[in-house]
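cron nightly-structures :: item 1 of 1
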Amino acid sequence: MSPTYPFLELLAPAKTAAIGRDALVHGADAIYIGGPSFGARDKAGNSMAEIAGLVNDAHRFRTKIYVTLNTILHDAELEAARKLAWECYDAGVDALIVQDMGLLELDLPPIDLHASTQCDIRTPEKARFLADVGFSQLVLARELTIGEITKVRAAVPADTVIEHFIHGALCVAYSGQCNISHAHTGRSANRGDCSQACRLPYTLEDAQGRIVAYDKHLLSVKDNNQSDNLRALIAAGVRSFKIEGRYKDAPYVKNITGHYRQLLDQILDERPDLSAASSGKTKLLFTPDPDKTFHRGATDYFSNGRKADIGAFDSPSFVGLNLGTVSKIGPDWFEIETDALLANGDGLNYLHKRETRGIRANSVKQSDNVWRVWPNEKMFELEGLCVGLEINRNSDHAWEQALSKKSAERHITVTATFAETEAGFALTLQDEDGIHATATAVFDKQTAKNPAEAETNVREQLARFGNTDFELCGLSIDWTQPWFIPSSLINKLRRDAVEQLTTARLAAYTRLARKAAIEPPAKYPEESLSFLANVYNKAANTFYKKHGVQLIAAAYESHKEEGDVSLMITRHCIRYSLSLCPKQAKGVIGVQGQVRAEPMTLINGSEKLRLEFDCKACEMHVMGKIKKHVLRSAPPSVVPVTFHARRG
């Protein structure tokens, strides 16, 4: 598969440059991070100076840095976005992740471009088009099955990298196809400011007004975990494995990056035809466990077909792992029967009246498999706590403390040759990528009084690479006889050689140039675009017209749509999850023909959303209209302005 790209890339998120360095040390082959603006997580921005520093550290390990420039842009923002692209290029950034096709009409630097998942890449035709217009890496829709990914891979050129999300929170809507947040609050998900209406509780009514589900988080789905599908995804053609989480803190990034680094390294050991996309080996100083960090339950979503249990309907928060049940209650304590080890400061919780109630363990004491817990809270405050109640742990204090310290090392292997020269001695280092550097020292040679001790000293001093990027895996000594050499001289040679090798690695690093678009311009798969194409500026309009689109509607953020429209399109089907799908009833005696996909209604307070079911496409549409207070707030100015057109 894809002989021109035999690398596997583990792509980790970074809220900050510091967390990016954590991802680097814990095994990331590439890191994606938000710049100062125009990222789809508007509260996870970083200055260009911070990104430039991260780039320098990452490139020493051949780890790439991708900057998210993946919001849709109005005309007044095009010039600022163009300047930001150039700033990223000047800082050494390897690629931009973009959604807005208007960027391709600007005078961009020759920087690699990746098509964001916000581009809604679900079909082979869409994927091929994006590859033909100059995208080298495509972030596929999370909803695709492994079979559908295989078809996309077959449709694009061999040098196009297929990227897929393997872990983290899931947007219930097809990415780029959700406007609920903007319709209700004026906060646009396409512009990085989602209000997360999908995590709210709703009551579900059928077409006759009967309550089907009460106060459930019916649009909230479990978190993505593709740990068991990595080999199948590789076989399908995925080469970049993306971890979601640009709002996540360092422990999450360390844990999940380390987890997938171990899994991918196991596969690489089995597959000599594949290699990691960066240099160095990671040694973890802890045991990764995805269940220890925030998640809403685990699902592989649609990778292996539709499943009924993808919903996180009871709670959108992190419940954690089940510990056991309450066995006894005292005046200021309670006991849990569990085989797990507890610690002072653990975060516990339980479910009461459809709500998750949290407990902080002030102190704990063990007796056999029973733990007595003295909570921070008063016992009378813990409503619903009773004997037989299940208790979960969502904060393992001891484990989190371990992650707050140094939790991994990453080193590039080198071989060393120590040799005598006419004027003294030289040390040559060659790394695993074939890059080498030589340091020399002038020194009057003196015959060693103890030859064995002289050689041992050379080997011991040269093995001390300490806090450098390198680790010695082989040393040869080339001299005519053992010489007396002061340890200080050997150490200086080692330091000088390491400095030169580090400089040589950075000098040898090359970024991929932007992929050229085919000529004549590729034809877009459709001749018309609805508001769901998110065309928000005249540059994007120009782009699509150039590629054969005749009718182009303005993005929802332009407030041109009237009445009820699809505020969300999702492959998640509430009917299916609640066993109310007509296809589920097919062939069931006494039920077949009785279940119809009639519209339903989601209710949250005064908020009502109508659900319509497209059974042919196996999709659910959440219908609604833009609120009056949002309409009264004019969208950002979309006026004709001059933009720097793409050269040529």
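cron nightly-structures :: done
Residues 412-508 form one domain.
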